[in-house]
Structures are given as C-alpha cells and as structure tokens.
Amino acid sequence: MKKYNFNAGPSILPREVIEQTAQACLDFNGSGLSLMEISHRAKDFQPVVDEAVALFKELLNIPEGYSVLFLGGGASLEFCMVPFNFLEKKAAYLNTGVWATKAEKEAKAFGEVVEVASSADKNFTYIPKNFEIPADADYLHITTNNTIYGTEISEDIDSPIPLIADMSSDIFSRPIDVSKYTMIYGGAQKNLAMAGLTFVIVKEDALGKVSRHIPTMLDYRTHVKKGSMFNTPPVVPIYSALMNLRYIKAKGGVAAMQKLAEQRAEILYAEIDRNKLFVGTAEKDSRSLMNITFVLKPEYQDLQDEFLKFATSQGMVGVKGHRDVGGFRASCYNAMSIEGVQALVKCMQEFEAQH
Ligand SMILES: *Cc1c(COP(=O)(O)O)cnc(C)c1O
Fold first, then answer.
1. Confidence class of residue 41 from pLDDT cuts 50, 70 and 90?
2. 236 touches ligand 1 (CB under 6 Å)
3. What tens digit of pLDDT does each residue of 111-143 get?
4. Which of 97, 220, 236, 296 is the least buried, fewest Cβ under 10 Å from its Cβ?
5. 196 CB within 6 A, ligand 1
6. What is the C-alpha to C-alpha distance for residues 231 and 218, in angstroms, rounded to an integer?
7. Residues labelled catalytic
C-alpha cells in the first residue's frame, strides 16, 4: 500500500532527492568512490557547497552582505550561538512554543532577557500580536513556525532592532524578505535535507559587536571566513540539501512551494472544520501551513487510538500529535503531495461515517 509520510522531522523528502543522494553514496560523480570516503576539501566536493550556497541565495533572493553557512549541531546549538555572538547586554524573545522557550533559556546565561510576549497562557495555540519591542535590546528572536503547536508567523515582521529567526520548519516554504532579518537559522531535517545539517543565513556586518571571547567553533566569523570549511562539514547532508534545492528550483522556486502549501492546508483545514469528530488546535489566524494539528472533539475523545490505528492501516505515517498537544499532527512539508492530504481527508471522512 502507498504510504504517506506526515512525520514532523526528520521528514518527507522528494523521492528523487533520496535516490540521487543514495547514488552519490555509492559512486560520487563517477569517481568510483563514495561521497562518504572523499575529502571535504576534494576539488569535486567544493562545487557541491558552492552550488548549494548559490541556490540558497537565488531561491531566497538573499541580498549582498549575507553569508550562507552549513554547520553541525542542529538548531539547538544555535540557541546558544545566537546570544554568544549577538547579546551584549539585553535581548528580546517572543515565546511561541517549546523551541522558542529553549532558545530563550539559553540566552539567559548571557545577559538580560525580555520576553516581549508569550502564548503559554493558552498552550501556544496562537501567535501574540501587538507586542512592544524594546528599542534598547540587541536583537529580537522569533520562531516563525511552531512545529509542535501548528502555529506560524507567515509574514516577515518589521522590527526596529535586529531580527533573528528560527525557521527550522518553514524555510523554503514561502518567499521571505531576508533584508528584514539579521540572521535566519534552522535544522535542515524538517523541510530541506536529511538530518545532520544546520543552515545559517547571517548578515556579515552584524558580527563582531560583542565584547566577550567567543570560542572559535561558536564564532560565526570563523565559518564565514572559511566558507563552512573550518572543520569537516556534514558532507552527505549538504549533498542531499543541494539535490533538494535543485528540486525546488525545478518546481518553480519558493513561490511555487507556497502555492502548494496553501493548497494542501486549505484542503486539510477545510476537512478539520467540517468533520463532526475533529477540531483544530491552533487559532484560525495563527494556523501553520506546515504542521497541521487537530484533536478529537471532547465527546469523541475515546476514539483517539482507534483513529490512529485506522489511519495507519490506510497508509498514513506519523500523524500522531506531539505529547504536549495530543491528538494528531499532519506535517505537510514541500514534498507532501496534494494526493497525500486528500488520502488523509478520505480517512477522516470514512472514520466519521463509521461513527
Ligand atoms: C526541530 C526544531 C528545532 C530543533 O532542531 P534540532 O536540529 O534537532 O536541534 C528547533 N526549532 C524548531 C522550530 C524545530 O522545529
């Protein structure tokens, strides 16, 4: 039976991206050697990094003065690298979920942290609006897509101070105005590549402004200067990212990805709102296009396990919600087809008919 992969991360990638990466692991560029056993400094590998950087810049329309970095450590290491490199006295954080909370917690070790707003009062079911940004803070940190709660900041906000965004789970899902951000980062394993890679887009002239000593590996300037080659970068994940960037470009770029994301979300949210058994967890104006969260209505709570079993039997993979929200979560990243969400909708309708 055909399987539809709704995993939240690591998650679905286009089949051709997986096949091309697998092929390079067997024989890289006809060299007779695996991608796993060549030097990252080999003359064959440098073009992989160069093209991946060039495609980042092209697809996201990144202005002059920004560097694209490929690092290790995941988005979670960025939670401390951000304050290490940017927090001199005070930083502002918008708290929209577990990942945002973790980022904020790391910053507290480096200086004063102002929480500009939080949606913790309603279990992060909405994106706070009309919060005040302290003009004297070194930066404002936001999480544009809250993978666990299914909420998203889908526009580039205006910030009077440098804006830093965790875009782990919505990068390359829509056009962004990179000039509004000082830095954008994320783990690649949600919407870009296989696990093991962290991407960073950073404005070069914003670096080097803090007075503390920064360990070499945690200093973004090291990686800017060395083109992500200060130490051995994650070569296979970078290769898979390149294959996916080529795929995104061939499919019409991020504008085309956005259109698809909107179509998928419209189909699935319409069913959640229509179906007598289910209800969405996020407030409507905060709904994510990437992670679509829903639960059974209180009167049908006891059907939880039965629906999961039924959905699994119909080929749905990874629709169990995160333990902090419960219920169900359909992660609809770039590679999820319209057919995939239609199959999930059919499941929900058949289950409704049985009850
Ligand atoms: C998954 C996720 C993270 C954590 O990423 P790691 O690469 O595992 O450290 C951080 N932020 C968001 C928004 C995420 O979805």
1. confident
2. no
3. 999 999 999 999 999 999 999 999 999 999 999
4. 236
5. no
6. 12
7. 99, 166, 190
Ligand 1 midpoint to CA 213 (Å): 26
Nearest to 249 by CA among 234, 195, 241, 179: 241
Q: Given a cut of 90, is residue 105 above it in pLDDT?
A: yes
pLDDT at 42 over 90: no
What integer pLDDT is reported at residue 265 of this predicted model?
Answer: 98
Ligand 1 atom, smallest distance to 167 CA: 13
Distances (CA, A) of 283 to 4, 45, 119, 197: 26, 46, 11, 32
For a substitution probing ligand 1, which of 143, 151, 166 has the most ligand atoms within 8 Å of its CB? 166
DSSP-derived secondary structure for 15-38: HHHHHHHHHHHH-STTSSS-GGGS
Question: Can you give the pTM of this predicted structure?
Answer: 0.98
96 C-alpha to ligand 1 centroid (Å)? 13
Task: For residues 68-83, give the mean pLDDT.
Answer: 98
Whole-angstrom distance, CA of residue 110 vs CA of residue 68: 25
Distance 99 CA to ligand 1 centre (A): 7
